[in-house]
């Protein structure tokens, strides 16, 4: 679901978190011997799959004259620049050939590198590690590549994507906002304004984030009610982890549903939401994946439309406010992000916290 940012104006920029993994593209778009390009954190990135199946990610700029490498060629092993024919091994970025050199030249092509990034495949996504400026291309110790928790060998899965015309901060606090559901997501299959009631949830600190502790899910959402057919207690747990990840796990005896939602900065003023979900509930129901994808797309589309409308207001740079318990998770996010960016600051949750709001 693409967004015409020109039509709605420019959203304010956000400070970006480097030194972490971000989902770049679905790997089913990366066939062997082919490349694709995208933007991550304002960086043009060229991705591809070598003949042997290995994924790679490079900065989509030739270090010689700055032309995009995506304008050139990829033979399954090497990326070649269109301008002067320089060749690069894409996983390391090492230059292997400069056609213009003669026997009189002393320049060694192998000492030249285009920028390459660690790239791994998880859950059908090419995850790319974008380092801090000036950091080594191959850090000695990288954080684990994010992956959706799964609780059985057999499961179904689906994914969704939507572009958002706002900076990553607005995308993330919209993602974790607990009070918009009855208004943004009004639908017979989800909830309505008439279902609003007071809720009480318990939160606890986790490394680089916070957790909504396992609890019985809201009774005013139809999808949760469907799990009642299994006759087992239902619990849901939600984790937010910097820089951009929301994990939700729903358990009902041996049945489960889990999702990983990420809000990835494309530029400092725009972002992209990706949702990957897996489940073994209603595993044998025909067309269950198509049904889940249809309703999931409607749900994400409602968020996307709201962010498009919000962006129309944000271009006028209004004063904004965060209030009371419903906005506490957003306050925690900003505090965690600031601590990450500055390398200092205590976790905003000193211990378990109880929040109350109506939704």
* CATH topology annotation of the largest domain: Naphthalene 1,2-dioxygenase Alpha Subunit, Chain A, domain 1
Secondary-structure element order, N to C: HEEEEEEEEEEEEHHEEHEEEEHHE
Query: What's the number of structural domains?
Result: 2
Distance between the termini: 28 Å
Question: At the fourth CATH level, what is the homologous superfamily of the largest domain?
Answer: Naphthalene 1,2-dioxygenase Alpha Subunit, Chain A, domain 1
Mean pLDDT rating? 87
Overall 3D shape: globular
Strand content: 25-35%
How many helices in DSSP terms? 6
Question: How many strand elements?
Answer: 19
Uncertain stretches: 4-9
Strand order of the largest sheet: 12-18-17-16-15-14-13-19
CATH architecture of the largest domain: Alpha-Beta Complex
CATH C-level category of the largest domain: Alpha Beta
Pfam family, one: Rieske
Keywords: 2Fe-2S, Dioxygenase, Iron, Iron-sulfur, Metal-binding, Oxidoreductase
Organism: Granulicella rosea
Protein name: Phenylpropionate dioxygenase, large terminal subunit
Verbal overview:
The protein is globular and about 80 Å long. It has an eight-stranded antiparallel β-sheet with strand order 12-18-17-16-15-14-13-19. The chain has a four-stranded antiparallel β-sheet with strand order 2-3-4-9, with no helix packed on it. By secondary structure, it is α+β, with helices and mostly antiparallel strands. The chain has helices at residues 5-8, 168-176, 181-184, 222-226, 288-314, 328-342, and strands spanning 20-26, 35-40, 43-49, 55-59, 73-74, 79-80, 87-88, 95-97, 116-117, 119-122, 125-130, 156-164, 198-206, 209-215, 234-241, 245-252, 255-265, 271-279, 353-358.
């Amino acid at each position: 679901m693409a967004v015409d940012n020109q039509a709605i104006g420019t959203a304010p920029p956000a400070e970006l978190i480097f030194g972490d993994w971000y989902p770049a593209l679905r790997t089913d778009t990366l066939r062997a011997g082919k490349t694709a390009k995208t933007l991550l954190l304002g960086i043009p990135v060229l991705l591809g799959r070598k003949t042997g199946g290995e994924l790679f990610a490079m900065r989509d700029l030739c270090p010689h004259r700055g032309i995009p490498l995506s304008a050139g060629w990829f033979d399954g092993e090497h990326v070649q620049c269109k301008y002067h024919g320089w060749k690069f091994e894409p996983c390391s970025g090492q230059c292997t050939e400069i056609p213009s050199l003669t026997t009189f030249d002393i320049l060694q092509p192998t000492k030249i590198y285009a920028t390459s990034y660690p790239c791994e495949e998880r859950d059908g996504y090419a995850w790319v590690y974008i380092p801090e400026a000036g950091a080594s291309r191959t850090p000695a110790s990288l954080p684990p590549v994010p992956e959706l928790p799964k609780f059985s060998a057999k499961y179904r899965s689906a994914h969704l994507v939507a572009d958002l015309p706002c900076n990553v901060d607005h995308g993330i606090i919209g993602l974790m906002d607990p009070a918009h559901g009855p208004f943004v997501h009004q639908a017979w299959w989800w909830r309505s304004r008439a279902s609003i009631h007071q809720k009480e949830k318990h939160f606890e600190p986790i490394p680089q984030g916070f957790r909504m502790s396992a609890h019985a899910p809201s009774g005013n959402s139809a999808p949760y009610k469907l799990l009642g057919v299994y006759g087992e207690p239902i619990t849901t747990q939600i984790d937010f982890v910097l820089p951009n990840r929301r994990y939700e796990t729903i358990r009902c005896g041996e049945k489960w549903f889990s999702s990983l939602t990420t809000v990835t900065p494309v530029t400092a003023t725009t972002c992209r939401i990706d949702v990957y979900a897996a489940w073994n509930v209603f595993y044998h129901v025909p067309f269950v994946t198509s049904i889940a994808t249809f309703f999931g797309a409607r749900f994400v589309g409602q968020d996307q439309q709201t962010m498009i409308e919000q962006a129309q207001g944000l271009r006028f740079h209004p004063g904004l406010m965060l209030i009371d318990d419903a906005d506490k998770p957003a306050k925690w996010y900003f505090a965690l992000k600031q601590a990450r960016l500055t390398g200092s600051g205590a976790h905003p949750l000193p211990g378990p916290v109880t929040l109350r709001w109506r939704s």
